[in-house]
Amino acid sequence: MGKFHGHAYPGLFLFCNGLYQAIVIFSDSLQSLCPPKKKGRWARLWKLSYEGLLKIVAGSLLVVYVNNCIEGGIILMDRELPPRFLYSKEWQHLTMFTLLILMGCVDVMSKNMLPQRCVVLEKGALALSFYELLLLMVSHAKGSSGIELQVHSLLILVVLLLLLVLTVELWAPEMFQPWMMETLLILVLGSWLIQAGFILYRPVSGYPWDDDDMNDLMFVTTFFCWHVMCDALCLFGIYGFSYFWHRCYYSSLKMMGSKEAPYHKSTPEPLYRLLQEIEQPEKEDQAPLLAKSSPRDKA
After folding, report:
1. Which of 37-41, 72-76, 131-135, 242-246 is the most confident on average?
2. How confident is the model at residue 68 (pLDDT cuts 50, 70, 90)?
3. In the prediction, which pLDDT does 299 show?
4. Cα–Cα distance between 264 and 254 in angstroms, integer?
5. DSSP of the chain, one letter per residue?
């Protein structure tokens, strides 16, 4: 597991999961403006927890990958006397990926099996998994030094910050700001995990990083800061694109709604109230005009 693919694959999954979560935030906000979907044969497919299913599939594939990295399969203890534990880091990776599978199972159960979705259960399982992940990461970095220690320390920092945000979401699961911070930290965790694979196993220069060189240690932190800025810009780009798409879609929906009656039924409540407030002054202005013109009609 201590190879390039062992860091790149989980990092790629986390980064894609962060992108998916960023898109979902705006898709939920746009759902009120969309016309109601017709109920058909495939209506249930749209209600499936694809994120939970993806976590289960990705976690299972990573578990198989860890087991195949060890010749003869991963075992817990040897047969010598006294017996000793083997493959400590591989077992830690296996535990991390098992947590990913359990998180996916909780998501599927909450969204597709329970009578009503329980957001607190999902957030609680996610926070508990990251509590355990933090313990595993701290223990995982104990045998490291130099560049490897610096890389894992920054990973631990991201996990710790993410854990604090998830703890806040247990009491405020519907707040927008913690969800944004969670998405950004997941993006940073995924992209930095990919970068860790390049730093430790496939340096771009073709030469390994020097643990005794202070410049290399400083540039590890510099690259991490660049990742934070780039991920923040990526998140800003997603929301900027979604905002302009929302404006274009809203304007087109408003023009279509003036021509076809069915779209007036799908008008969001705040917009409907605003239209009522605009129509009422118009009616009040028209009433005096009719009253003044009535004597002329009689004459």
Report:
1. 131-135
2. confident
3. 42
4. 9
5. --SHHHHHHHHHHHHHHHHHHHHHHHHHHHTTTSPPPPP-TTGGGGGS-HHHHHHHHHHHHHHHHHHHHSTT---SB-SSSS--B--HHHHHHHHHHHHHHHHHHHHHIIIIISSS--HHHHHHHHHHHHHHHHHHHHHHTTT--HHHHHHHHHHHHHHHHHHHHHHHHHH-TT-HHHHHHHHHHHHHHHHHHHHHHHHHT--TTSSPPPTT-HHHHHHHHHHHHHHHHHHHHHHHHHHHHHHHHHHHHHHHHHHHHHH-THHHHT--HHHHHHHHHHHHHHHHHHHHHHHHHHHHHH-
* CA–CA dist 111, 61 (Å, integer): 23
Contact 6, 202 (CB under 8 A): no
Three-point CA angle 241, 245, 22, nearest 5°: 50
Question: Position of tokens 């299913």?
Answer: 53
- Give just the sign of the alpha carbon dihedral 183, 169, 34, 279: negative
Whether the per-residue pLDDT at 114 is higher than 70: the answer is yes
What percent of the chain clears pLDDT 70, i.e. is strictly above it? 74
Report the chain's C-alpha Rg in angstroms.
Answer: 27
Q: CB-based contacts of 84: which residues, under 8 Å, 6+ apart?
A: 77, 78
Distance CA 141, CA 264 (A): 59
Structure tokens at 169: 């979401």
Residues listed for the chain: 299
d(CA 35, CA 250): 11
pTM of the model: 0.74
In DSSP notation, 270-296 reads HHHHHHHHHHHHHHHHHHHHHHHHHHH
Q: Is the pLDDT of residue 206 over 70?
A: yes
